[in-house]
Every structure is written in structure tokens, then in C-alpha cells.
Amino acid sequence: MGGQYRITGDKYPRMRRNRGRRRIVLAVAASVTALGLAGWGTLQLIDVFTGGGDKASAAGTAPGCKTSPSPSASPVKALPEPGRITVNVLNATARKGLAKDTADALKKRGFKIGEVGNATKEYDKKVDGAGIVLGAKAAADAALPVLATQLAGAELKTDTRARPTEVDLILGKAYKALTTKEDADDALTALAKPAPAPSTKKDC
């Protein structure tokens, strides 16, 4: 072109990039990134609420898992055998021969028999229940409960005696007979093996 619009010299005007277009591109990229993150988060929430997260890490608990008690092994209690327990059979009732008959039955079940006779004034005619198993404090978790398996409903009491293997069986007004041998053996087994302690079990 000529005239006043004629370009002269070796320098040409440089064309500048449109800054508005750059801003639009950046805005679009940011929007796409935000939408992608929102979609990923939505999928994670769907997995959580629909049980999609079936795979749990070895160290953790899978989503939705519940804990429930399960039995665990319990140690066997060391209890004295009937042959190591000396039983004094004392009659606190008005019925004659009751102590002797009971002592004979206990002897057949393996217990040692000590004194057989009437109860002392402290208990004579004053025991309303089936009977009382009386012994040393050290026998509270040993000889006393072992002998109590032979008489359902017997009351366990302790005194100041020194020998933990010597126990009194005081027969009361409600006494009729010893527990059957089968039931007594079952009670003794249950006494030696307490109920299992609860532990937690994962149910997924």
C-alpha cells in the first residue's frame, strides 16, 4: 500500500495474544477438574452406602462389619477332690438318724467323714433351709463349693477355723435328701470349668 499507510523500515508491529481467551481456557480447565473430583466423591459415597466397599484392608475392619461376642477357652479351676475333704455331718433338725444316713451317702461318693452328730446350739433347730456348708475362709472357693454340689440350695458360710479341707454340713429343716449323684457330678464338672468368657467376633 502506498501513501500515508505505507510501511517503511524493517520493524513490524508485534501481535499480542488475547488475554481474555487465556482466562477462558483456564476457567474451563478448572471446571473440568472440579467436576471430576465431585464425581469421584459421589462414587465413593455410593460405595459406602450400598456396600460396595467389600474389600477391607488386612489391618482394618470392612465397612458395615459388626462385632459380636464369641466364646473363648476358660481355664479349668483347681478344686480339691472329694477324697481330700473331711465332712462333719451335723443334724440341726428333730429327725433322728438323719446325720448318719447322710454321712453314709457322702462316704459312698468319695468324701471323708469326720464327726457325725447333732449341730451346736448356734445352729440347732435354727436352720430353716436345706442346710449350711460351713468352713474356713480359705475354703470359700475350694472345699465349700465342692461339698455344696451335693446338696441343692445349701447356704455357704465361713468361720475362723484353720483347716481349709475340713467342712461342716449342717442339715436344716427343709432337708430331704442329697442331690442325685448324676446331678452332683454335673454340677462339679460345671464348677471346675466355668462358663467361657465373652470375646469379640467380627461379622461382615
Structural features, described:
With 204 residues, the protein is α/β, with parallel strands linked by helices. The chain contains four helices and seven strands, in the order H-E-E-H-E-E-H-E-E-H-E. The protein has helices at residues 19-50, 98-108, 143-148, 181-192; strands at residues 66-71, 86-91, 112-118, 131-136, 155-159, 166-171, 198-203. The strands form two sheets. It has a five-stranded mixed beta sheet. A two-stranded antiparallel ribbon has the order 1-7. The longest helix is centred in the N-terminal third of the chain and has 32 residues, at 19-50. Residues 57-80 are annotated as: Disordered. Residues 84-175 form the LytR/CpsA/Psr regulator C-terminal domain. It holds the Pfam family LytR_C. This is LytR C-terminal domain-containing protein.
Question: Which helices and strands appear, and what pairs or packs with what?
Answer:
Elements: H1 19-50, E1 66-71, E2 86-91, H2 98-108, E3 112-118, E4 131-136, H3 143-148, E5 155-159, E6 166-171, H4 181-192, E7 198-203
Parallel strand pairs: 2-3, 2-6, 4-5
Antiparallel strand pairs: 1-7, 4-6
- Unreliable stretches (pLDDT < 50, length at least 5) are 53-59
Q: State Rg.
A: 44 Å
From the spread of the alpha carbons, the general shape counts as: rod-shaped
Along the chain, the helix and strand elements come as HEEHEEHEEHE
Number of DSSP strand runs: 7
Q: What is the arithmetic mean of pLDDT?
A: 79
Q: Strand fraction band?
A: 15-25%
Summarize the biggest pleated sheet: 5 strands, mixed
**Number of separate helices:** 4
Arrangement of strands in the largest sheet: 3-2-6-4-5
Helix content: 25-40%
By secondary-structure content and strand pairing, the structural class works out as alpha/beta
Distance between the termini: 85 Å
Region (Disordered): 57-80
InterPro entries: LytR/CpsA/Psr_C
Domain LytR/CpsA/Psr regulator C-terminal: 84-175
Protein name: LytR C-terminal domain-containing protein
